[in-house]
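yo

u said u wanted the structure for the complex thing, so here. seqs first:
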Amino acid sequence: MGAPFDIGYVFSFLPKLLDTLGVTLLIVAGSLLTGIVAGFLVALPRMYKIPVLRTLSGVYLSFFRGTPILIQLFLFYYGLPEILKLVGLDLTRAPVMFFVILTYGLHTGAYAAEMIRASVEAVDRGQVEAAYAAGMTPYQAFSRIILPQALGIAVPVFSNLVIALLKDTSLAFTLGVMEMTGKAQTLGTLTQHFIETYIALAFIYLIISFTLEKMLLAAERRLTRHENREDKRESIFRLKKRGSYRTVLADINIGKGGGA
Amino acid sequence: MQLDPSFIWTAFWQLLGAIPTTLSITAVSVLAGFVIGAATAMLRMYRVPVLAQIASAYVTFIRGTPMLTHLLIIYFGLPMIIDGLAEHFGWSFRSVSIPMIGFAYISFSITAGAYMSEVVRAGILAVDRGQVEAAQSVGMTTFQSLRRIVFPQALAAALPNLANSVIGMLHGSTLAFAVSVVDINAKAQIVASTNWKFFEAYLAAALIFWGLTVLIERVAALIEKRVGAYNRGGVV
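structre next:
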């Protein structure tokens, strides 16, 4: 199958694949933005226990976490124009990229919502009460007390989320978007050096996720520096000391337990 | 193109036939992945020289790259290696005789192994260190204390993540279309393009996956209750 293995091709394919890195990162950034907005909208009714809306966001979460992203991509790509046609909107000329970012955004939104809810709930209840006792308004209590602490708790989960999203974007080629995986397939077919293209492809993904992880780890250190000032040990020991964090992280960590 | 609600039902029945393929890919990758994961986690936790570093590199690589690339690398790379070895040693076995689904099994097991390794590790770390010390002080060997004390508790702690992994692999099995295995997703593609009813077919596929996921979640919650029984509060 294909031509014999030649390591030289891996290196010559790297710059060609990097040309399409922008498209992959555009999908990641666009979907993250959409996802965080969607996540907030979905998480709020659940946190404040608003009757009907709460049930709706429950269904949203269950659906987007309960079906594969690949199926969701096709479902939105083929289904959305048809549904919107019923209300008189014509989407048939919308670019594919629109559907791709929308689907990944809504998919990420489900995980973002759980991340937001769990991180806010992980902040000690007494902190909020203290804020109210000091005369803060609910908005002040949220922005000054809860948010800074919740951010620190959310970062590890967010890091997993971003990396999972990056890896998921490798499926966008199924709708014909020329991102890195799509480009790799074209290169493979053209040169018959499939294995070399995919090794180069995997290498690029690895470097990007490694960089993202390191950057977010630095952000986490910065955001949680109020904890354990004298105790510089790794997070796993901190979890053992604080029972409540451990159960919280057991609930939300990993989030997506697989490749797709 | 008009929406045809009744076709969703038709497609649903046609897709049911592909469920065993999806489930078998999921089951094989989860089971093999658990074995690989447990071994990898042990190597890393006991800091076995060389092997621990290899295990770390494996986990980092797999978790940092998309599942699709693993499948494609195995699909194109494995035959090359097997045929090369076969020629060198004069075996009669050739890669052509590996069924397509075999590549999915192998590659997804490797993927699942890396994710499972983290699940197992987190589960074992959640067990109190004093439990192991207590086990050894009553005279258990390392193996006995692992089997009788650590694993049952680690399993309970790891269950939510384990369920997540099973769901992740169920959803990941949709990638098998790339090596022409007809799972639910590929079947939906076939049903959709032969009838030119894409939305309806994928809606049916989504419903099946949604149902399967909810089922796995429910079963996991039941098992969690059972396995976590030792950990409940109260006096009785």
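Chain B is about 80% helix and 0% strand. Residues 20-181 of chain B form a domain with the MetI-like fold fold (CATH 1.10.3720.10).
cya
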